[in-house]
Amino acid sequence: LRWENMPLSLKRATYAVESMYYILTDQQYDDMNSGSEDEKRKKIMNYWNSKDNSPNTIFNEAMAEYFRRVDYAFFNYQTSFESDGAKTQRGKIYILYGNPDLIERQLTDDGKVEERWTYQSRAKKEFVFEHISTGPYKLKKIIDL
């Protein structure tokens, strides 16, 4: 069986485990990160099989969506400070919550760029990032809506 358009982040088991850090406990992460590539791959599949909402089908939608988000974050949130956008603070929020309902950018009085990601329909949260021209975007605050 071949998975057409498999997310790039699933090609290497070690990277796939690293990208699951946001959703695993420390113990789960350490356990999943031990062993050979094949052992890690089996642990990844076991984890996602336990989360599969439609276990009678071959395709695991939850796993596919998670790693699709990792791929998107990797490429779209890269900076000169972090070549892997999935490891940035904006990448983390994107991986966990998906595409925001609304993104707003504004220049603050002190010359910083503020970016607000609003998740009105799903998480009822707003994430505010701050960007200073010499550094990466940093999560400034989380607002419950």
Topology readout:
Blueprint lengths: L12 H7 L6 H7 L4 H14 L10 H16 L12 H9 L4 E6 L5 E7 L5 E7 L5 E8 L1
Antiparallel strand pairs: 1-2, 2-3, 3-4
List the defining traits of the structure above.
single chain; 145 residues; alpha+beta; 4 strands; 37% helix; globular
What does this entry look like structurally?
By secondary structure, the chain is of the alpha+beta class. 37% of the residues lie in helices and 19% in strands. It contains five helices and four strands; from the N terminus they run αααααββββ. A four-stranded antiparallel β-sheet has the order 1-2-3-4, with helices on one face. A hairpin with a 5-residue loop joins strand 2 (113-119) and strand 3 (125-131). Helix 1 (13-19) packs across helix 3 (37-50). The longest helix has 16 residues, at 61-76. It is globular and about 55 Å long. The mean pLDDT is 93.
